Amino acid sequence: MLRSFLQSHTAVERVCKALSISNGVVYPSKTVLCAYLHFEALTVHDYQFSCLKCGFHPSVVIMDAHRKAAFSMPVSEIEEPPANFDGQVDVEAFWNSLRLEIIARGLVETGNPNPFAVKPSYHLWAPWIGPNTRKSGSVLNTEWEKVHSSNPNPASEVPVTEERLIDELMSLKVAAVRQLCASCGLDNKGSKMDLIMRLRSEMQNRSSSIFQKPT
Is the dihedral of CA 85, 144, 137, 33 positive or negative? Predict the structure, then answer.
C-alpha cells in the first residue's frame, strides 16, 4: 500500500496520518518509513523503466524529481578521491552497499553502529540509472571534479590582509553586508560603514593568523 501511495506522489507521513485518523491508532511515520525501506531493500525489483516517447533512453530528465533526494553536507567532511580516480563508479556495487545498510538498520540494536554504513565519498557514490538505460555497470560521478585541495602553504604565507578584506566588504551591497553581520552574530542595523566597522572590530578581536599587516 505504501509503495502504491509513493508511486502516486503521496508521502509516507501523509499516509500514516490518514491511517491514524481512520483506525484511531498512532502510526509513527519515521518508524513506518524505516520499516518500509527495509521491506523494499529485501524485495527483488525488476527495473524495466521505459519512457513512452523515448524508450529506455530519455533525452531529458526533470530536475525537480531528483531535488528531494539531495542532501546538504559540508565538503570538508567528504573524503577526497584517490589520485588516480577517473570518475568511474560501479553503480551496482554502490547501490547494493546501500541496500545492505538499509537491511542492517532493521537488525542492529538501537545505539550500536551499523557495520554496513555507507559514508558519502566521491569515489563511491553513483546515480541510479536503470540497467536497460545505461551502457554498462560503470557510470560517471562528475562531482569529484569540483574538489579543490586545501592550500598546502602555511597561513603565514597566504597574501591576505585585513585591509584587502575591508576593500572587498566595501564593494558589497548593503544587504549582503547586513547578512554577513547577522551570520557573525553582530548587530546588522545602521549604515554600511557602521556595519563594516563592526566587522573590522570583530576581526581584530579574533586576531586570526590569516590577517597580515602590510610592511
Answer: positive
